[in-house]
Design a protein that fits this description.
Elements (H helix, E strand, L loop, with lengths): L1 H7 L23 H18 L1 H10 L12 H12 L8 H26 L7 H30 L8 H11 L9 H29 L6 H22 L1 H11 L14 H12 L8 H38 L1
Length: 325
Amino acid sequence: MATDARAKFQNPEFRPDFHADLTVSTHDGLHFWQFMIAGSVAGCVEHMAMFPVDTVKTRMQALGSCPVKSVTVRQAFRSILQSEGPSALYRGIGAMGLGAGPAHAVYFSVYETCKRRFSNGNPGNAAAHAASGVCATVASDAVFTPMDMVKQRLQLGNSGYKGVLDCVRRVAAEEGLRAFYASYRTTVLMNAPFTAVHFATYEASKRGLNEVSPGSVVDDERLVVHATAGAAAGALAAAVTTPLDVVKTQLQCQGVCGCDRFKSGSIGDVIKTIVKKDGYRGLMRGWIPRMLFHAPAAAICWSTYEAGKSFFQDFNQQRDIGTVT
């Protein structure tokens, strides 16, 4: 056991102070359940904070079938506030809360586990970060997709659903359980490249920002690094994957509030319908609020997640010291 420990920490730059050097460790000194808790908290904080922007994006991506027909963010906000009031911006937030916590717990724990296995001790391995992100999104989307569908249907003002439970009951009774996963394939196809771009950009940005920062960076400055890297990653990934996000919204909201219903549910059929109805620009509907959502959301999520990891690192350090003494 002692031999394994010495082999693991042969790096001469390693210093057991559990601060700056620990953040580039391939395991971060945390248990699996600690990654899950940090990820769950980060996901909830991220989505709750940015939920109004997500509502505007969903309305705009409904191709004008629902009350918000404008393609500008300002007019969309004004239309919702004037016709339904501020509370309409938070319709479906309960479904988001039920889905975001468990999904992000899976998301970050799978990411950290895969990153440890794929990187082979190289913290700068961008391919490992991208591949780990793809594995994480496939697993987390299986958890999140049903509640995401409920959330988006509730976000449409005239959907007719009274709440989360009413939506779940009616969808299950009228459309069957398959309706909860109607967009799963599209969601994975969207989130796989989104996550690959997101994680690769985040790790590269974080590494670059850390290189220009002082070696003894304080916690507040480290928080800025995580937030800045997360914002850059979120904005770029959101812009690249907007067309598939429009397709996902159409599949999840089909038949609700005047939105089209698709027989096959194939991505090609949905794209053809969007292009026929709104032109190719329809595939980019909601790209501005999508970027406005994901840039700060990613900054909030990553800074919260890294803060959670730091908390558990300090907790483990204090526990180990208490065990030794």
